[in-house]
Structure formats: C-alpha cells, structure tokens
Amino acid sequence: MANSSDSVFANVVRAPEDPILGVTVAYNKDTSPVKLNLGVGAYRTEEGKPLVLKVVRRAEQMLVNDTSRVKEYLSITGLADFNKLSAKLIFGADSPAIQENRVTTVQCLSGTGSLRVGAEFLAKHYHEHTIYIPQPTWGNHPKIFTLAGLSVKYYRYYDPATRGLDFQGLLDDLAAAPSGAIVLLHACAHNPTGVDPTNDQWEKIRQLMRSKGLLPFFDSAYQGFASGNLDADAQSVRMFVADGGECLAAQSYAKNMGLYGERVGALSIVCKDADVASRVESQLKLVIRPMYSNPPIHGASIVATILKDRQMYDEWTIELKAMADRIISMRQQLFDALQARGTAGDWSHIIKQIGMFTFTGLNTEQVSFMTREHHIYMTSDGRISMAGLSSRTMPHLADAIHAAVTKAA
C-alpha cells in the first residue's frame, strides 16, 4: 500500500472548515430528531423545505418546451436580455444612466462571481487598491477582494451595545479613508447583522463618499427579499446613481428568485459617459475570458423569461413578497416568544433588523451551549437565518435562547 508521504502533495495541509458550511456539516452528523439548522443562508418553507418558486417552474417549462433553444455558448458578457433587464431591475426602468448608455452590465456567476470580476477589474484598472468593507460583513468578502489583488480595510458598522448601526463610527472611518478608496456597501438586508442605514443616513453616507471621491461598490444579494418591495430595496443604489457619479453593483438572483444552485448574477458598472462604459466593458471581457470564458445559459434564461413578461414579473413579485413576509413574521414570533418567557435583556433588535439574518447578540459560549444542549446550529457569532425557522420550531429556539441567557446570567 502506498504511503501518503510519497505523494507530491504530501506538504499540503488540511484547510480549516468554512465557518458557515461547517455548521451544516455538524448539523448533518447530529442524529437528534429536534435538531435545527439556522446557519444556512437559504430560504425554507414553513415545513422546513427548500422552495422552488411557481413562476420559476413555469419559466423553466416554457424553456424546455421551446424546441428552437440550443446549448451554444453565450458571449463572454452573457445573455444580452438578462443583462439589460438586470440593470433595469436595480437602477430602475427610467434610470438616466441606462438611457444615456452609461451602464455596462455583464452576467456573472451569482453574487460571488460578480464581486470577484468587479474586484479583478478594479485591481487592474483603478488607481486605488484599498477597499473598505463593513465590520462585520459576509465571511467571503475579505477573501474575494484579497485574492483579486485588493487590500482590505474595515469601517465600523455594527454596535454590539445597541445591536444597531454604529453610524458615527461608520462616518468617522469613511472620512478618514484615503481619497479614491473603494467602499463596499450592502445595498439592503446587511449580512450578517440585518441592520441597515435609514434613507437619511444613506444620504449622509452618499454626500461624504462623493465629497471624498470614494468609489461605491454595492453588493445587492437581497433586492425584494428584505422588505418585499423591489424598488424600496434598491433605494440606496439609486441614490448614488442619481447624482451622476460612478459606482459598481453586484447582483445575485440566488435569494430573490430562489436560484441558489443556478449561480445567476450580474455586475454593473455605472460610468461617466457611454464611451467610458464601452471601454470598461472591453476590459471586463478580458477579466472574464481567462477566468471561466462565458457564463451558463439556463439560470439567466429563467430570469430573463420572468423579467420580460409583465404577468410573470407580477407573479414573481407576489411570491417574493410572501417569502419576505414570512421572514418578517418569524421575527415577530421569536420576539413575542422571548417576551412571553421573560427572557432577560432587550430583544427589540430582532424586529428592527431586516432580511434573512438576525444578529442575536448571543455570545460564542451561549451558541455552543445551544448546540450542545438543544441541537440548534448557527454560526459562532450568534447570527441566525430567520428563514430556517417555522412556527413549529420557534418554541424550541425560544426555549434554547432563554436557557442560554439564563445560564450565562
């Protein structure tokens, strides 16, 4: 039998488990009938099952029935219809930037791929290589930007004392950033905290960033999924486009169309004029070509089918609002359950926060207690996916939080 030390890869060390995906691995090994996975960032029904939207099934059926469809390669920039419709969805159908051809949009591999393509483009063609990202942020952000060749720094975002936004800290850190630095902004439903700035606060952020020439890079993973309203959830992005300045926006259809595994996303860059946009697109092609050549056709075709048909679009918005409303209702139920148990502390942040995730404020010790004693799985920072909850599992979670808080008190 061969000895592994003979391998040319013998010096490869085992990588640490991804902290989010590792939660699911541990959950899968647990044999308890009451186990609950609140780590996964994917929508679940009241029965705890993954959901395929009815409108998505209908669009897929239409595509399957269309015998004229072939499996040829897309262009490097992806499906043209998909790109046009994606830009309209985030910037608004009447956006002057679109009408003036100042936006270039390329189809990418969901949100992650869109961020990576944007980051590689900036590393090659933008004069400032520092990107400021919120503290905390999605665990993949620092890795994406660092590997693309950017230097990552943080700006204050979450205030553990209020379980809300550290707005003054955010402004101070951005004011201290070097002129021209890139700033990553979560368009809505901040991951992992569920804490968003108000429209007034967004306006102050915009003014500060424009006055310092900071370049906004929006990550829009939850449009329509946060409030149930597609326009409201794109408000922050549209504010920055309305002033005529430049910005980048990465979009994902994983959450709002439930197309997680189809990897459907888009990167849009809003430029000063049509000539710049055309040159930017030519360089985006040079980033994409050696990376994955061109994107997959199926998921983008589903999105384009739904977005260009008024009836299907309306059907989608109804299903989307139902998902958002269920999550909002889970927040209320959890808050009510903790109130009913007299759990120590102020839990109002659960109903103030928005989107799929809630930063509970539970510490690492309390999280491991809940996993050990109650078979509830979440990331060690106390982030839970509200979409992983149901009316049936809510009492179990509320009991576990109450026990964890009481025990640690």
Automatic annotation (TrEMBL):
<dbReference type="GO" id="GO:0030170">
    <property type="term" value="F:pyridoxal phosphate binding"/>
</dbReference>
<keyword id="KW-0663">Pyridoxal phosphate</keyword>
<dbReference type="Pfam" id="PF00155">
    <property type="entry name" value="Aminotran_1_2"/>
</dbReference>
<feature type="domain" description="Aminotransferase class I/classII large">
    <location>
        <begin position="35"/>
        <end position="401"/>
    </location>
</feature>
<keyword id="KW-0032">Aminotransferase</keyword>
<dbReference type="InterPro" id="IPR004838">
    <property type="entry name" value="NHTrfase_class1_PyrdxlP-BS"/>
</dbReference>
<comment type="similarity">
    <text>Belongs to the class-I pyridoxal-phosphate-dependent aminotransferase family.</text>
</comment>
<protein>
    <recommendedName>
        <fullName>Aspartate aminotransferase</fullName>
        <ecNumber>2.6.1.1</ecNumber>
    </recommendedName>
</protein>
<dbReference type="InterPro" id="IPR015422">
    <property type="entry name" value="PyrdxlP-dep_Trfase_small"/>
</dbReference>
<dbReference type="GO" id="GO:0006520">
    <property type="term" value="P:amino acid metabolic process"/>
</dbReference>
<keyword id="KW-0808">Transferase</keyword>
<dbReference type="InterPro" id="IPR000796">
    <property type="entry name" value="Asp_trans"/>
</dbReference>
<dbReference type="GO" id="GO:0004069">
    <property type="term" value="F:L-aspartate:2-oxoglutarate aminotransferase activity"/>
</dbReference>
<dbReference type="InterPro" id="IPR015424">
    <property type="entry name" value="PyrdxlP-dep_Trfase"/>
</dbReference>
<dbReference type="GO" id="GO:0005739">
    <property type="term" value="C:mitochondrion"/>
</dbReference>
<dbReference type="InterPro" id="IPR015421">
    <property type="entry name" value="PyrdxlP-dep_Trfase_major"/>
</dbReference>
<dbReference type="InterPro" id="IPR004839">
    <property type="entry name" value="Aminotransferase_I/II_large"/>
</dbReference>
<comment type="subunit">
    <text>Homodimer.</text>
</comment>
